[in-house]
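Question (not urgent): is this output format expected?
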Amino acid sequence: MSKIPTVDGIPVPPISLSSPSEPTEDDKKPLETAKDAVGSSPPSRFWLRMSAGWWRRLQYVGMSLHFLASPRPPSPSFSKKVPATISKEKGHFEIQVYVPEGYKKAKNNGQKFPAVVNFHGGGFTIGSATDDARFGRFILEHCKAIYVCVEYRLSPEFPFPVAVEDGADALLYIINHADELAIDPLKLATSGFSAGGNIALTSTILLNDHLKKSPKTAPKHKIRAVATWYPICDYTESREVKRARSTRPDQTLPANLTSLFDASYLYPPTLSLDSAYLSPSKATDQQLAEGIPETVIFYTCEWDMLQYEGEELAKRLGRAPINKDVRHKMIPEVPHAWDKSPDPTKPAAGSEEVYAECCKLLNEAFGKA
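Got this back:
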């Protein structure tokens, strides 16, 4: 049976396989600016906000169905408001904090927990911090770690680089408030899905660059691992090329949705697409070696238009001169975000096994000297 692509629990119609859209020669050229990616006449920011609002409501319904399947995912234990200090777009965003069993008693006894800081998906345009609560259940039970989910600010209201800056600010906040939260600052990890998988990578690069300029803004800490799930890694390559390269173009996300995401996030038109904070594949070897954690857990989906670029980045991270400990797995015969199935009767096939595997690898990273 053909699997229907989903975006964070939203079923989206597959594109026609009978008349695939072949990329033109212009499509194959590297994209340099946001204007190259979204066109010379993009939708108005007002239209983008209205369209994003509609998709957010639809996504809420899809995720509500996703959460109904047994076993039900946990709810956040508490939330914190985090001030934006890195971004020029001042304001606040929230983090939703999930704690393992026995947290309060252990905290009173001075015990510290590892922490996994997670970023949700949705093309930087839709989605909520709680979307990955099913994965969070495994973090709580298998890693005995605190699971922190970031409600980063969304586009089109807050286009690039606000989401990545909020991600770096969330890490900075957790490092500086580790004692208050009963977190061991030497046992941190990031994780993220889709757009959040991008932030799981780029936020650590940005934080490293920020701390090189302002080292006194954070005490001693160590981000030991990143678990990135089907991330977008390279905005300099057109969506047409990505879609045509997929082994199942009919199972990739439709152009109307990816166009909304790109037009919302990639702004203004002069924005350069080769920024390391936008396209981690374009980061220098030094940025990746210094900014990416030692352990890289990298999941891609066989039918995803992002599979190839994810696999290429995983390979690069594992090679000299970067030499990270990379654990890459391609999940066979599934589309992008397959684990966010809106089926209320059962979790997505294979998702819980892969979540458990990821937690095992995170535990290994936390246990390293």
